[in-house]
Design goal:
five-stranded antiparallel β-sheet, 2 helices, 2 domains, mainly beta, Tachylectin-2, Chain A, 43% strand
Length: 480
């Protein structure tokens, strides 16, 4: 159980009672009005959610995988795909030529440790008539037929006759579902290719949609909601936003709706540049984004952390930047952005890849400027992306939970003068007051009550947990 949002924190309520302890509610007021007193019933207080800053690894100048890509951890191997058009990697310094290219290649790379990457394994992709290829992404589709299990999506300009027909239909949409950058000169579309193994690729001639998706696109199949989902860039009022679309059929998409944009309490020069959607390794119910916020005034950027319970409504986790730019003169002092996904990195860590450069975003991109970009891992101890924190004292109760084990172990951090306690509400001998106080910096410490670790309830019985924190941070709970 990761504490990355409020899904486990019970809101509580107030009971109104007389001085004799008689309780009245909205629908059963006393016949004669009397003075009533508030009694709090499991109302949380004194705690808040705080995003944890990442630790940066040492940078590398290795140029693979390419910009705005994802790194997938699959069967113990780090894997990534990118596309080259006439030998040029998409997402590099320049857009490919406006003419139809001579060659389009899918390139596969892998790594055993996340640092040393293999040379690309190349396979040709026959896409006649397309031009101006820009950007690509990939995913593994768990519900597709075997021959379509691997999918890549890329942006390109279709042949003129197809582009004209698509544009005529596009312009009939309500304005809210159109990108102002789409025009007769730029009828850009998202195209797909599929593969049974990630090496032999078949292009899909019909575009998925007309959309100006020139930066970070995330496609996935959401098994919880049984939908295909796209997270992508939107352009509203001259600013970059993050949008979302969904589909029952991968080849038939609904409209793109905005989900993340600069908040009204942000500086007024900010854009939300990328989405960097990911799920926690092995626990897809915890969804994150690591969006890049672009500061136009300085052309620098920072990476923040967002969370969502269902993938539709998103909130920034308080705490500010989790991957900030470096100090002046550092390799990542100006422009940086996070990749996807969040992956295990060994030694009890989870991490996302990120790229940084000492040059502002729109600085003229001579070869030396482009070559200055480096990549590194931004990592957190397992489970420690976000904390429920009590600066002084606080407590909260959970909603009813069915335990997945007979013992609880906590991932927490508490000062010597602070502590964490947890109890099972209503179970004798297992209250928060009976819990042995826990302090220190521990990733998986067993909870004990009078020396006992068993939770003391019948199998399958729901429980309400009661946490009490003093000068402490609680990151996660594990059932064993």
């Amino acid at each position: 159980m990761l504490f990355t949002d409020q899904r486990y924190i019970r809101g509580g309520e107030i009971k109104w009672e007389t001085s004799e302890g008689e309780i009245f509610g909205v629908d059963n007021p006393p016949e004669t009005q009397v003075e009533l007193y508030a009694r709090q019933e499991r109302v949380p207080y004194g705690v808040r959610l705080v995003a944890q800053p990442a630790t940066k690894s040492e940078p590398t100048s290795i140029r693979t995988p390419g910009p705005y890509r994802r790194i997938m951890y699959d069967e113990g191997i780090y894997r990534s795909w990118h596309m080259q058009v006439d030998g040029q990697m998409l997402g590099g310094r320049d857009y490919p030529s406006e003419t139809v290219p001579k060659s389009v290649e899918m390139c596969y790379i892998e790594s055993k440790d996340g640092y040393q990457w293999s040379e690309p394994k190349r396979s040709s992709l026959k896409v006649p008539g397309l031009r101006r290829f820009v950007n690509m992404t990939f995913f593994i589709d768990p519900v597709a037929p075997p021959q379509e299990r691997y999918k890549v999506v890329y942006m390109a300009v279709p042949p003129k006759d197809l582009g004209a027909r698509l544009l005529a239909e596009y312009l009939k949409r309500p304005r809210r579902y159109r990108d102002p950058r789409i025009s007769a000169k730029r009828p850009l579309c998202l195209f797909a290719a599929v593969s049974p193994d990630g090496f032999a690729w078949k292009p899909i001639e019909k575009p998925l949609m007309m959309h100006y998706a020139d930066t970070d696109n995330t496609f996935l199949y959401d098994q919880e909601n049984a939908k295909y989902v796209l997270y992508t860039r939107m352009w509203r009022n001259g600013r970059r936003w993050v949008g979302r679309a969904e589909a029952d059929d991968f080849y038939d998409w609904g409209p793109i709706e905005p989900i993340i944009w600069p908040r009204l309490d942000d500086p007024v020069d900010y854009d939300v540049y990328t989405n960097a959607y990911t799920e926690y390794p092995g626990a897809p119910q915890y969804r994150f984004m690591f969006p890049t916020f672009y500061h136009r005034y300085t052309e620098r950027s920072e990476v923040r952390m967002y969370s969502s319970e269902g993938g539709v409504a998103w909130n920034q986790i308080p705490g500010g930047s989790v991957i900030p730019p470096g100090e002046p003169g550092d390799w990542d002092s100006a422009w940086l952005w996070a990749y996807k996904d969040l992956v295990p990195l060994g030694e009890g860590r989870v991490a996302v890849y990120f790229q940084g450069t000492p040059y502002p975003h729109k600085y003229p991109r001579s070869p030396g400027v482009v070559g200055a970009a480096c990549r590194a891992w931004a990592w957190w101890p397992e489970g420690r992306l976000c904390a429920v924190k009590a600066d002084l004292e606080g407590e909260f109760w959970t909603y009813p939970i069915t335990p997945a084990g007979r013992e609880m172990r906590l991932n927490y951090r508490a000062h010597r003068a602070g502590e964490v306690r947890v109890g099972i509400f209503g179970v004798e001998g297992r209250s928060a007051e009976d819990c042995k106080p826990m302090h220190g910096n521990n990733m998986s410490e067993p909870v004990t009550w009078a020396g006992k670790t068993d939770i003391g309830i019948a199998e399958g019985q729901e429980v309400i947990l009661h946490f009490k924190l003093r000068s402490a941070e609680l990151f996660a709970l594990e059932w064993v």
